[in-house]
Amino acid sequence: MRKTKKLALCSILSAIGVAFIVLGTFLEFIDVSVAFLVALIPLFCLAEMGIGWSLGVYAVISVLSILIVGPESFAAFCFAFFTGLWPVLKFLFEKLGKVWSWVVKILYINAMFMLAYFVFTSILDLPNLLWQKILYLVLGNFVFICADILYGRLLKIYFLKFRDRISKYLK
Question: Are 112 and 82 in contact (CB under 8 A)?
Fold first, then answer.
């Protein structure tokens, strides 16, 4: 695929991603779901065009969604700091092998969760309770492990069933 086609496809996918995050901001009950759904866009770009284009799409969606809906939008924040970069990190971590990739994934996501928790508790002046930290980490790890497995299975399904049909349009 030529660079102009890649650029056009990445631009269209970035616009769709930003539109979904704006929609998730207005419908506050699906904001985290939208962030995980929009993370499929960098995953597709990673599968079809490589890591550079995927990082570019992630950066464009993150910056534009935060600029458009503001940093107080949880959907934009969740995509920019957690779910948007996850497909690229998943790809890089899985090069380490099955066991080590899970160790690094869990360590990374727990570090990000703790960073976000400490930032929010210091900015919002929330009580620093131990049971909240434990619940936050347990639920967050469960969600990200499920999302990691889901992204892997969706990628397999894409390569097995849909890539041949889509690749003729991407030439």
Answer: yes
Number of domains within the chain: 1
Give, rounded to a whole angstrom, the gap between the first and last alpha carbons of the chain.
5
Where do runs of H (alpha helix) occur along 2-80? Answer: 3-26, 31-38, 40-49, 51-69, 74-78
Task: Tell me the whole-structure pTM to 2 decimals.
Answer: 0.85
Q: Which residues contact 135 (CB under 8 A, 6 or more apart)?
A: none
Instruction: Write the pLDDT tens digit of every residue in 13-39.
Output: 999 999 999 988 888 778 888 988 999
What's the CATH number where 161 sits?
Answer: 1.10.1760
| Residue 57 and residue 10 in contact, taking contact as beta carbons nearer than 8 Å | yes
CA distances to 50, 60, 61, 116, 121 from 16, in Å = 19, 11, 9, 27, 33
pLDDT tens-place string over residues 148-170: 999 999 989 988 988 888 877 77
**Domain range spanning residue 27?**
3-167
Whole-angstrom distance, CA of residue 58 vs CA of residue 97: 25
